[in-house]
Design brief:
- With 432 residues, this protein is mainly alpha-helical.
- 50% of the residues lie in helices and 6% in strands.
- The chain has 18 helices and 6 strands.
- The strands form 2 sheets. Strands 1-2-3 form a 3-stranded antiparallel sheet.
- α12 packs across α15.
- The structure holds carboxymethyl coenzyme *A.
- Carboxymethyl coenzyme *A (CMC) binds next to loops.
- Carboxymethyl coenzyme *A binds next to loops.
């Protein structure tokens, strides 16, 4: 980051002296006012619940321009990565800063492929869960448990340890997600198979059984790979900020990523695609297309507490570029699987059409986000609704671990410790 010639002046109406605050510039995007010395100079904190105007870190990984609807990983537009690269190219890029050449790609793919198996003891740990446990509960536990198995890569001060734990996490997430799924069905887990692609291997671990051969469907493989690419990173969102805050205490990377999984579970974040599909199923059960208008009236009624899931975004106020790519994939998958007349897709299209023309949504700049279509694609592929957020976690692990590693390597890194505006009781005495 570069110090700007421009400076901010903060003045007060009570006669306290004004102070000057430095301004830093990034490569693109808004400048930031450096308030690190504010408390020392004024005795005041800034107040920004929800981080609406606060840059909590400098980062060189992902850039979003919410007004333009632009998403860049290491400078590359998401549209180009989605069309020209696979998920492991994207992982390499996010972790290392550049796309791999042919040799680097081969080596990276081999490294990831060779780390896909998990310690057999993990199966005993898995068996402690109820079969009907939510997969995100299982995943939070399994990812956290990795720290009990891979002690040889938890020295966070060692860059080699940081790298190998990143590879382990990226490699083992598909295995863990498929283990959670197979366990919920009472089916045996399927071992990884090294001659398949990352995504093909995941599909096989999810849907094969030990009694029959399994053929990976190429359209489905490409669609899921695209879902992984689109979800790989998204700058300082809630789960990534959680990973950074958790990791800032110096905890091991597996524990930090487990905190990200837990945060992602919520319906305002990674749980939105699951919530979106539940919403579509509910509308379908209540009368389908004929009731879409009534449902939209509820969405616009503030007292109803109903939101149009899969719509709106904290950062994208024009459109979510991932939603466009996902819509394209959605049509491709449904056509390849002969599901063009899927009633939930029809409902989704009808809702989208009304919303895009309705003043309520237009005025508030609410557009479909990536989750609006990704749920329909995953359902068509055969992924159960309860596992949607697990798929998101699998993909986002790359972003989490890259952001964590960037933080640990940053010379300015400190434990994260937000301050507060205290509004509770003033000092009082216990009287008994
Ligand atoms: N349906 C109806 N109204 C909405 C919606 C929606 N989906 N989203 C926002 N609004 C309204 C909201 O009621 C508010 O209206 P008003 O100004 O009259 O009070 C206005 O739009 C601004 O909303 P907000 O809650 O202040 O916006 P935010 O930036 O804090 O919230 C959001 C962003 C994603 C949490 C929200 O849009 C939402 O709850 N969407 C549905 C859940 C969803 O799809 N989440 C997935 C996000 S994308 C995946 C990811 O990147 O994690």
């Amino acid at each position: 980051m570069k110090l700007s010639d421009n400076k901010a002046t903060l003045s007060f109406t009570d006669g306290s002296p004004a102070i000057e605050l430095p301004i830093y510039q990034g490569t693109i995007g808004p400048d930031v006012i450096d308030i690190r010395k504010l408390y020392g100079q004024t005795g005041m904190f800034t107040y920004d619940p929800g981080f609406l105007s606060t840059a909590a870190t400098a980062s060189g990984i992902t850039y979003i321009d919410g007004d333009k609807g632009e998403l860049l990983y290491r400078g590359y537009p998401i549209e180009q990565l989605a069309v020209n690269c696979d998920y492991l190219d994207t992982c390499y890029l996010i972790l290392n800063g550049d796309l791999p050449n042919v040799e680097q790609k081969k080596e990276f793919d081999t490294q990831v492929t060779r780390h896909t198996m998990v310690n057999e003891q993990m199966n005993f740990f898995l068996r402690g869960f109820r079969r009907d446990a939510h997969p995100m509960a299982v995943l939070t536990g399994l990812v956290g448990a990795l720290s009990a198995f891979y002690h040889d890569s938890t020295d966070i001060t060692n860059p080699q340890h940081r790298y190998i734990s990143a590879i382990r996490l990226i490699a083992k997430m598909p295995t863990l997600v498929s283990m959670a799924y197979k366990y919920s069905r009472g089916e045996p887990t399927i071992f990884p198979k090294n001659d398949l692609s990352y995504t093909g291997n995941f599909l096989r671990m999810m849907f094969a059984n030990p009694c029959e051969d399994y053929q990976v469907n190429e359209v489905v493989e490409r669609a899921l790979d695209r879902i992984f690419i689109l979800h790989a990173d998204h700058e300082q969102n809630a789960s990534t900020s959680t990973v950074r805050l958790c990791g800032s205490s110096g905890t091991n990377p597996f524990a930090a990523i487990a905190s990200g999984v837990a945060c992602l579970w919520g319906p305002a974040h990674g749980g939105a695609n699951e919530a979106c599909l539940h919403m579509l199923e509910q509308i379908q059960a209540n009368g389908g297309l004929a009731t879409v208008g009534k449902f939209m009236e509820q969405v616009k009624d503030k007292n109803s507490g109903v939101r149009l899931m899969g719509f709106g975004h904290r950062v994208y106020k024009n459109y979510d570029p991932r939603a466009k790519l996902m819509q394209e994939t959605c049509k491709e998958v449904l056509s390849a699987l002969g599901l063009e007349n899927d009633p939930l897709l029809k409902l989704a299209m009808a809702l989208e059409k009304i919303a895009l023309e309705d003043d309520y949504f237009v005025q508030r700049k609410l557009y479909p986000n990536v989750d609006f279509y990704s749920g329909i694609v995953q359902r068509a592929i055969g992924i159960p609704t309860s596992l949607f957020t697990g798929i998101f976690a699998l993909a986002r692990t790359t972003g989490w671990i890259a952001q964590w590693a960037e933080m640990i390597a940053d010379p300015e890194y400190k434990i994260g410790r937000p301050r507060q505006l205290y509004t509770g009781e003033t000092v009082r005495q216990v009287k008994r």
